[in-house]
Write a structure and sequence with these properties.
Length: 322
């Protein structure tokens, strides 16, 4: 009998077999690999835990931006999606929707080159399909404690007073509060004594276009002692990631599909590893496909402005700092 991915992860968890996993947003094409065997098609670097082999890198400089041109959908096209989402919110069907769009770009490097040069927190490369250089953790498990770090709120950090602008923005405050409540509820379904350890802390990420400021929170809970026996069930129970879907999850997923009119695939899915005891994983954002289509987006609330959200979507199109 062929095991499902979920069952396979449970089996490996029970035997403490280290593994890597990759799960798409719709959970239709999940993949997993035992770390006891070589992995050719999927390269990863999860905060230093990596299977990227050493290779001679291209002579890039910090001043070079491999993305030379962005061709996003028109504002009129984006506004149509945005208005649909806002109407659904007016009906009370969602409180927060992560709306994403596609942008065709010109790039001087292949996605494989970008993967090997990236110094992002998390880098994932699926051969001939995509590269993701993500700054966002999904869940981490350390000594029986599960952590989540939802990221909501982004700004051009080069703006004067960027940190204060972002932290005092009422739309961003409301959006972040909603996602923290959602993640607390998610973690409560798999752990006990869930609490918010740090709320709305500010960080900056260096890109080829300067710095981007972002806001995250840290939430944790205590797992049962035998959590590894059903680690596949645990992972799938928390999907999709709240920060890239919305609240409430199920209805918001339906709204997303109607607005975007296409499956996201691995974009906004997750990837990670289990070393036999601990786990680390990321949300697959900052995502470039092999056909040079870049996918980006942001959270929409009742306080959102279409022009600002459209610009935020474009601002998130960048190459990682090499």
């Amino acid at each position: 009998m062929t095991l499902t991915i979920q069952e396979k992860l449970n089996k490996w968890g029970r035997s403490k077999t280290p593994f890597v996993f990759l799960i798409d947003f719709e959970c239709q094409h999940p993949k997993c690999w035992s770390l006891l065997d070589p992995i050719e098609e999927f390269k990863f670097n999860f905060q230093g835990f990596s299977n990227f082999e050493k290779r001679e890198l291209l002579p890039l400089t910090l001043n070079r931006n491999p993305i030379s041109n962005k061709r996003p959908m028109s504002f009129k096209q984006y506004e149509k999606m945005f208005n649909y989402v806002m109407n659904e919110m007016e009906y009370g069907n969602s409180f927060l929707v992560n709306l994403t769009a596609t942008t065709k770009i010109d790039c001087a490097l292949s996605i494989e080159d970008i993967a090997y040069h990236s110094t992002s927190k998390y880098t994932c490369y699926l051969k001939n399909e995509f590269v993701s250089f993500s700054p966002e953790s999904f869940i981490q498990i350390k000594d029986g404690i599960i952590f989540s770090y939802p990221m909501k709120g982004t700004i051009d950090a080069n703006l004067p007073g960027a940190k204060n602008i972002l932290l005092s923005d009422q739309k961003e405050i409301a959006e972040h509060a909603t996602i923290v409540d959602l993640i607390r509820n998610d973690l409560s379904s798999v752990s006990e004594k869930v609490r918010v350890n740090k709320y709305r802390y500010y960080e900056e990420i260096k890109t080829q276009n300067g710095f981007i400021g972002q806001v995250s929170s840290e939430i944790s809970g205590i797992l049962p002692s035998d959590y590894a026996n059903s680690i596949g069930d645990l992972i799938f129970k928390l999907l999709p990631a709240g920060s890239v879907s919305g609240a409430p999850k199920q209805k918001t997923k339906e709204i997303i599909f109607e607005a975007e009119k296409q499956a996201r695939g691995y974009y906004t899915g997750i990837a990670g590893y289990f070393d036999g005891t601990n786990l680390d994983s990321c949300v697959l954002i900052r995502y470039l496909q092999a056909d040079f289509v870049y996918k980006s987006g942001g959270g929409i609330t009742a306080q959102s402005n279409a022009e600002m959200e459209y610009q935020e979507m474009i601002n998130k199109i960048y190459a990682p700092s090499f």
